[in-house]
Design goal:
mainly alpha, binds carboxymethyl coenzyme *A
Length: 430
């Protein structure tokens, strides 16, 4: 807590509000006592200027395009680590030693199966069910099958996290297999986290899947880049739901639902649908740019813009590079890559996008990579959810462990409805 204060003057009265400074110099005015001392609340729709907590997990500077997990730069982690290593870092606060990583990997293998009774659920979703709805439902119901692993059960954190990380991967792959009507492929103990997922997705009795090292490397990178992003919409949802005392699975299930939205994680699917529409429209970029700029048209350039990043999204820079490399290595010639690059070039030289600091975000190129890997479009946001899981768990755990500042999330409002008025019985109403 800092000794510096900000002075707030309301009419003739002045109030001293403490200033809080973060590790990297980010500043906040502490208004926790504001209503008690002044009778005022602050109004901040979309929480554009509201800090909901202090956290030790991820640092983000949107003006400088910086993203660090637990003090480590995102590009260094993406270049040198596996997703499992980064998940461990986010969850435990430190990079693992080789022995710790081996133990964590063994836990992931141990917990990879889901209860066989859960498998029947997949049979009863309609054929075109959204994999995001399936994922959210199945993660929520994990609580019924594994009530002992709720996150506040006194179990060790690595076990709780490994169970969820491992089972979400199995659920995601099983939901795909069911949707295409293929037999399920069970997890294997000899494969890496990403290799195992790809094998469960694509192995077939008639055509065994050969795990491609380039695909595994790219998937690792993508999951690392999605692993946390401090207080974004879905993570804030996980914290908010958890703040009511709800178990870990249900809180994560709510986060998955929030992620589904096209303004959040659902943007990776929306980007591909937009690029396909442009392609079918004979690459009529002008039409889509015009629509995106029209204040009366709800259409936006998906994969462009960010609440926090105002120069560039460091994740997007890495993903664009990975996209070109991966398509080349897999010998995939996707016309959507060319369309995406042209669209980016046009938007980045257009005053509308320049003046509003709108740049490609993490979702702009990721879908093209998933397509090249053979992942269907409606599974893209599931991939995002798998990546974001270590972040969600870490934030839920951090919040639950904060016995000093933890409170149920409960914003206030300014009421603008009717004043109190007399009740009119139904037979007298006209
Ligand atoms: N295309 C066209 N105009 C845009 C776009 C866009 N993609 N994004 C923002 N704008 C305009 C917006 O219309 C507004 O214009 P004006 O000032 O004239 O009213 C201005 O830019 C500011 O936008 P905003 O909606 O106030 O900004 P926000 O911080 O509330 O929204 C956003 C951030 C990400 C929701 C928004 O940029 C957007 O809708 N982008 C498209 C969806 C998308 O790609 N989402 C993924 C985000 S990154 C991954 C993740 O975190 O999930």
């Amino acid at each position: 807590m800092s000794e510096k204060h900000a002075t707030l003057t309301i009419e003739d009265n002045s109030y001293q509000l403490p200033i809080i400074t973060g590790t990297d110099g980010d500043k906040a005015i502490d208004i926790r006592q504001l209503r008690n001392s002044t009778g005022f609340i602050t109004l901040d729709s979309g929480y554009m200027n509201t800090g909901s907590c202090s956290s030790e997990i991820t640092f983000l500077d949107g003006e400088k395009g910086i993203l660090n997990y637990r003090g480590y730069e995102i590009d260094v982690l993406a270049e040198n680590c596996s997703f499992v290593e980064v998940a461990y870092l986010l969850l435990m606060g430190e990079l693992p030693t080789q022995a710790q990583l081996n133990d964590f990997r063994s836990l992931l293998s141990r917990f990879a199966l889901i209860h066989e009774d859960m498998i029947h659920f997949f049979d009863h979703f309609p054929p075109n069910a959204s994999p995001m709805a399936i994922l959210s439902t199945m993660v929520n119901t994990l609580h019924n099958f594994y009530p002992e692993m709720t996150g506040d059960s006194g179990e060790e954190l690595p076990e709780i996290a490994a169970r969820l990380l491992s089972k979400i991967r199995t659920i995601a792959a099983f939901s795909y297999k069911k949707s295409v009507g293929h037999p399920l492929v069970y997890p294997r103990y000899d494969l890496s986290y990403c290799g195992n997922f790809l094998n469960m997705m694509f192995d077939k009795p008639v055509k065994p899947y050969v795990v491609h090292p380039q695909v595994v490397a790219t998937l690792n990178k993508l999951l690392i880049l999605h692993a946390d992003h401090e207080q974004n919409c879905s993570t804030s949802t996980v914290r908010l739901v958890g703040s009511a005392g709800v178990n870990l699975y249900t809180s994560i299930s709510a986060g998955i639902s929030a992620l589904w939205g096209p303004l959040h994680g659902g943007a990776n699917q929306a980007v591909i649908e937009m690029l396909e529409a442009i392609h079918q429209d004979n690459n009529d970029f002008e039409k889509y740019i015009k629509k995106a700029k029209d204040p009366n048209d709800p259409f936006r350039l998906s994969g462009f813009g960010h609440r926090v990043y105002k120069t560039f999204d460091p994740r997007a820079t890495i993903i664009k590079r990975a996209c070109e490399q991966t398509l080349k290595a897999l010998n995939v010639d996707d016309p959507l890559l060319e369309i995406a690059m042209q669209l980016e070039e046009i938007a980045r030289s257009d005053d509308y996008f320049i003046s509003r600091n709108l740049y490609p975000n993490v979702d702009f190129y990721s879908g093209i990579i998933y397509r090249a890997m053979g992942i269907p479009t409606n599974m893209f946001t599931v991939m995002f959810a798998m990546g974001r899981l270590p972040g969600w768990i870490s934030h839920w755990m951090e919040m639950m462990g904060d016995t000093k500042d933890r409170r149920i999330g409960r914003p206030r409002q300014i009421y603008r409805g009717h004043k109190k008025r007399p009740f009119i019985p139904i037979h007298e109403r006209v």
